[in-house]
UniProtKB/TrEMBL annotation:
Protein name per UniProt: Prohead serine protease domain-containing protein
Keyword Protease: yes
Organism: Sphingobium jiangsuense
Keyword annotations: Hydrolase, Protease, Viral release from host cell
Range of residues in the leader sequence: none
Superkingdom of the source species: Bacteria
Pfam families with a match to the protein in the record: Peptidase_S78
One BP annotation, GO: proteolysis
Domain Prohead serine protease: 16-171
Region of interest called Disordered, as start-end residue ranges on this chain: 166-186
Molecular function terms from GO: peptidase activity
Amino acid sequence: MMTLETERRSLVLPVERRADGDGKGNTVAGYAVVFDSEADIGGYFREKVARGAFTESLKTSDVLAYFDHDRGRVLGRSSAGTLRLTEDDKGLAVEIDLPDTTDGRDVRELIDRGDISGMSFGFIVTRQEWDETVDPPTRTIHAVELREVSIVSEPAYGDTSIALRSRDAARQEQREHPAKRRVDARRAAMEQRFRRI
């Protein structure tokens, strides 16, 4: 049995600060994930997050918001109401009420200056699907346990080695269960014909 490890993915999309009546707005918003958008993971495989991947996790997880994934730089927390996460048609929307701390003020200033370029999220995959009929293989993430979201200064896809171990485990399962491999291949072929790919 494979040990589940936390992976991180980043998205380069604008993070915005929402001003309130006095123009000092302390709420920042953006997207940590855009659904069904394929990303190249180090040239090893393609990956996308399916709609609904966060549904169960958002019901139960107490998620923290960090600056640059640093656990010592907390910006918000879902159980405290200072971090709000919602799945919408686009992806995983994030709103953080920045604290009146050095990190909170720094993040606000960096966003205003345009130095912050994205958001990221830390997760454990709980349900996934690999399509080995294409090159490079494609991983579709159907469900995750969301651990954290971060405002990041340099968005990058990290922890590729963890995802590669997940791919290797899926391949090993296919070798051990050839009947399942044939069913999966037929299912992928039918899906491709249906979508006229």
